[in-house]
Amino acid sequence: MKQYLKDIIKCVKCGRCRTVCPSQKVLGWESSGPRGRMLMASGCTCGLEISRGMIDGFLTCTTCHQCVSECPSGADPLEMTRVVRRELMDMGHVAPHQIEMMKRVSGSGNSLGDESPRTSWLDIPIDTGSFDHIYFVGCLASYRQQETTAAIYSVLKQFSVGLLEDEKCCGSPIFRLGMDASELIEHNSYQIKKAGAHTVITECAGCYAMFKGQYEFNVIHLSEFLSDRLEQLPLKRLNITVSYHDPCHLGRFNKLYDAPRTVISHICTLVEMKYSREKAGCCGGGGGVRLGYPELSSTITKDLAANIPQGMDYVVTACPLCIRNLSDIGIKTIDLAELVRMSMV
Amino acid sequence: MDIFDEIKGIVTLNRVSLDPAELYCYSHDASYISSTPDYVVMPHSTQEVSAIVKLASRYRIPIVPRGAGTGLSGGAVPISGGIVLDMSRMNKLQKIDIPNLQVLVEPGLIHARLNSALEPYGFFFPPDPGSSEMCTLGGFIANGGSGMRSVKYGTVTRYVLDLEIVLPDGEIIQTGSMTMKSASGYDLTALMVGSEGTLGIITAARLKIHPIPEARKVVLAHFNDLEAAGRAVPAIMSQGIVPSACELMDSTTIQALNIYDPDLDIPECEALLLIEVDGTSCSIDPDAVDIANCCRALGAFDINIAGSVLEQQEIWKARRLVGAVMTRLYPDKTRVYIGEDIAVPLSAIPVMLKDIRSISSRYNITIMTYGHAGDGNLHTGMAIDILDKYQYEQLKQVADDIHRAALRNGGTVSGEHGIGCVRGTYMKQEHGRGLDVMKQIKKAIDPYNIMNPQKVGLE
């Protein structure tokens, strides 16, 4: 850990992050917030004993990025959390949910551990030709939103967007948990090169952030691709009112705020949440928290739900974890892709 | 039954910790001081605090109250070990009482959340610290805090009507009342404000609130001479204008802010004065013009007036964060809070600024200077390689010189951050026999010295 000392001591311990961290808001303890994590990382460089409290402290980070966005001194507690998670694993401190996720991804190539074919939603063989743009579907869209995925692909195909012959998980779920995702990155990168693509289109916020940060391809969000072609799309206006929840990995991570709103506003009435864009709440699902600390995760979601305007037909978002967490507490939540599908003529 | 078991009997298992990592986290605040507690406890009620304090009293264990741990003087660091009481979960805004111009809060409530809650009623809690977004009201009161609008509205002392205090023997008292004033006996409320947890633990506070002024304007006056900016402050006050805020920033501060938020685009200059006036829309315009003229006469080369709420919000947001922003100016260094809170009489501001420049040259270290010039409170910021022991030692020397210069200029070593365990050395020089009186008060209230020991220079 000593090689990270320069990064750790950027933190001046001002505490700005502790009031925005969703986990610390629920748990209260210093160890459950970014400043505490930076302190523990600092302690690790000088022999601080590894304890249950330390492990829980690092693993309860939802990777929402609020600490990084708010930090006046330019520290990055989020990256340090990922580094320490990896170091802890290297030392043999592996939590059951980390093992579970690794098993799922390495066994089946997807974060759900689903053994069925990834492209079972597709009723025709994959076109293995060459494409400038490829649609990286993602695990949840491949296995849990198949009808929507098929509809979206039918639109994208008209713009000569292809699919990967053998797509696997982008690696985000294990990378954020501190594990090595290089094999998945290599595999998908090979597939993208094989398809001859220079640009990857994703819809899942986790995939988007992973491609932005860890892959060497141009990546755009599905909403960016669609918002540039709205007049050419077979979409009809829907008489519904929705609110949009900015997923952390799309919004704060990558500052992608406008394109989803452009698409939504084209389709139906959009009402903003009280806190949105860079101030948007976290659903509590990221960073392995949904899997490892479900009670904490759900409490954070309830906090977010209080921010949703009354009378919405749906909350629209672009992250499978946000959808699942919000749906679990009874909020009618749909993917942006699903909204597009509903609007298709 | 050991102490841990007894604590568990009071607050349940998930609100007490002796996990080494947790203890390590609670061994720090935002200062450069650290010391490890034996237990951390997170109470939810006054009764729980009282029971824990009674236990601490029985076993003669030190007990250290802590808000958000944003203090800059080591006040929440458990120098003698013992129990750290994390008060941040007692964070309810219990009552907004507009007809009586007051609120009742628990100590863990974040300062900014009080003002957010009051805004729809057209009221605010005027003391306005830079750490508003993160500090708790309990810690703010216990440190005698103030902030940017103290020029006109005064420090927190003026706003505390009544405190619920758990004394060192675990008994609970009220120090004041619901009334706007009281001449009934010793002012225990004033005694507790700024006592830094050495006399008791604040478990509730009744605070006076104020109507939000109808209008505000900010005058931004740029100077090419730091001391001239310093001279402008008493000159403005001498005109009979009482600004709601009057902030000074030197050239280093301006550079740091421009890096942090390039949209601010503050012209590079030796000093910037931010002077806010508030009141009615009729009154603020002539005040702003008078202030601008005064600054121009003293050498300000560029003067702007920010009128829009958004523009003003951006300015104040940046100003609030400036302390930590210094690290962005020197990415390989860390800003250390030391010697950072002196205050001098308004007329001594120019000479104090000159002294700081001289200390900076003598040690060849950049000293960022900014602060609440309107009440003579200057913050100094220094960034060093904190892994370099030599630089650390030198920094302590620099801070010592700054403190002594402040006292020489008729000032104080702390305008608003408190003494904690980093400024106790200067208490005798600053207070003389008064320090002995403080020690006698401490002994009378806390005979076993369990309440936040080794703070405020009392030992």
Largest sheet of chain B: 8 strands, antiparallel
Category from helices, strands and their pairing of chain B: alpha+beta
How many β strands of chain B by DSSP?
Answer: 19
**pLDDT averaged over residues of chain A:** 95
Please mark out the parts of chain A with pLDDT under 50 across 5 or more consecutive residues, or reply none: none
CATH top level class name of the domain at 233-343 in chain A: Alpha Beta
Put simply, the count of helices of chain B is 16
Q: Give the number of DSSP strands of chain A.
A: 8
- Measured distance between first and last alpha carbons of chain B: 33 Å
What is the arithmetic mean of pLDDT of chain B? 94
Shape of chain A: globular
Rg of chain B over CA atoms, rounded to whole Å, is: 22 Å
Distance between the termini of chain A: 56 Å
Structural class of chain A: alpha/beta
Task: List the helices and strands of chain A in order.
Answer: HHHHHHHEHHEHHEHEHEHEHHEHEH
Task: Kindly report the name of the CATH homologous superfamily of the largest domain in chain B.
Answer: FAD-linked oxidases, C-terminal domain
Binned strand content of chain B:
15-25%
CATH class of the largest domain in chain B: Alpha Beta
Quaternary form = heterodimer
Key features of this structure:
heterodimer, A: 345 residues, alpha/beta, 18 helices, B: 459 residues, alpha+beta, Uridine Diphospho-n-acetylenolpyruvylglucosamine Reductase, domain 2, Uridine Diphospho-n-acetylenolpyruvylglucosamine Reductase, domain 3, Vanillyl-alcohol Oxidase, Chain A, domain 3, 8-stranded antiparallel sheet, 16 helices, 19 strands
